[in-house]
Amino acid sequence: MPTAIFGAFESGIIYAIMALGVYLSFRVLDFPDLTVDGSFVTGAAVAATMIVSGINPFIATLVALAAGFIAGCLTGILHTFGKINALLSGILMMIALYSINLRIMGKSNVPLLNTDTAITHVRDAWDKTGLDSIFNSIFTAVGLGDSVPRTWGILIFMIIVTFAIKLLTDRFLQTEIGLALRATGDNKRMIRSLSGNTNLLVILGLGLSNAMVAFSGALIAQQGGFADVGMGIGMIIIGLASVIIGEALFGTKTIARTTLAVIGGAIIYRIVVTLALRVEFLEPGDMKLITATIVILALIMPKLIDKTKEKKRKAKRQSERIAMNPDGKGEADASFKSHS
Amino acid sequence: MLHLNHIHKVFNEGTPDEKIALDSINHTMNEGDFVTVIGSNGAGKSTLMNIISGVMLPDMGTITIDKQDVSTISEFKRAKMIGRVFQDPMAGTAPSMTIEENLAMAYSRNKNRTLRKGVTKQRKDLFREVLESLHLGLEDRLTAKVGLLSGGERQALSLLMATFTEPSILLLDEHTAALDPARAELITNLTKEIVKKYHLTTLMVTHNMQQALDLGNKLIMMDKGQIILVVDESQKKKLTIEQLLNEFQRIRGTKLASDRALLT
């Protein structure tokens, strides 16, 4: 089971890039963008198809990122220039991408087994360094010998990639354009009065968001060894779950803290799902139901906790007041007198 | 500086609700003019502001700012020349962002936004310096979220953000109307100070007659989409509220109908 946790951690850190994309559209831009379900697959489809036809997997992954950017921009254009409702423009794009993804792949599933991918390249390069045995011996020394992953290389590589994207995002959101982008989600009227082109900013923001999502999709396809036209179903909810769980557990004080929280949320989500699937009566097909349940809980629980806290606080105050006025009617009498 | 030439705007044209909001307005503001605008409900004051700032485009007529015809230029491009403060104290700032980030966005108003950092050390010093002029102690709270400020503080910040980059035109749309009397007075005084300091060409809509008389060097009165009275500098100094109301009655034959007009 600990090896399964490592697996969950590894894919969690890749899904974290997708969650950062969802954070950008959902939280920063305040735009519920459902394009994600489609653009995740677009990334996977583009990368898988190019890799199978013999193109360098790193280049293929970057092209996948660009494809996601274009898909996001199109959703933005539908919303700003087409004046279509935010949810609807995302759904339209998602549906359109389903067919586009099938066209890209030519079939509904492209296997990547026995093919050189970015992941296998990293694994091979890592194996040459021989660092695995060192890491493994450390873990064995502290008595965790049976919980080592297949290879440390991919895990470390993914952590570096994800944190590079996180730091770039943090940095970007502090630039002049980044500030305007955040203001677009916060107060459109204000940033327009300060010469911000809100239409262009929405398009740019959705482009960047979906570029991250597609990038994540491309890496998941290479890690899992296939691209499938259905692999994006419910992706937006997974992204949202990561954002909400992360924010609730790790806080949102600054941008850097929030993006870190989102990464944490994505990893925790994966671990929770992995653990949940180990419960006897749950099957892999129940995954979407588990996801929906987690999101519902993550949305409701913080409010319930706040409410209970507030109730307790009020009850405490009330009892304090009663303790100060034992006869229980002194206060009312006093206020009455002062008026007369 | 600002030149409005035969501006015409009709809402709901061709329907029973058709309303002429602006009826062939002509008006010129010279550099350094501070014009206050008063008028009855639905006189077209807000529409006039929206037409100048580019929120709406006129059906006919041209708008010139700094000798440049801006009639068809979009709102955000025009904003490079125009500073604006809205009636709603929440409208002029981004609540989830810090004071320094808000000022950084205002700093970029008349420039092109790039991938440079918005808040630099150098800019911070500038922000601190301009915030001091508000006398609200905000210079010590640069990293506080704007959503935590009171309505008066937010409006003072909005005013500062609209002005410290010295726009060609400053538009104030009843910017003290939503504040309590003490806060309104504070903002009024700040407006006076800031407009003088930066020598700004200002157009201010107000429903407070006294404010309209106290501030600025010119006054215009609007009714039913027309400018019905222009008071110049020398006349304005002697003018009283009573005279203003009488003047309206003389021109229009009815009393000034404004449920919000403050006569004191």
UniProtKB/TrEMBL annotation, chain B:
Keyword Nucleotide-binding: yes
Keywords per UniProt: ATP-binding, Cell membrane, Membrane, Nucleotide-binding, Transport
Gene Ontology MF, one: ATP binding
Pfam families named among the record's database cross-references: ABC_tran
Membrane topology: Peripheral membrane protein
Segments forming domain ABC transporter: 2-249
Keyword set includes Nucleotidyltransferase: no
InterPro entries assigned to the protein according to its UniProt record, in alphabetical order: AAA+_ATPase, ABC_transporter-like_ATP-bd, ABC_transporter-like_CS, ABC_transporter_ATP-bind, P-loop_NTPase
Compartmental location: Cell membrane
Name of the protein described by the UniProt record: ABC transport system ATP-binding protein
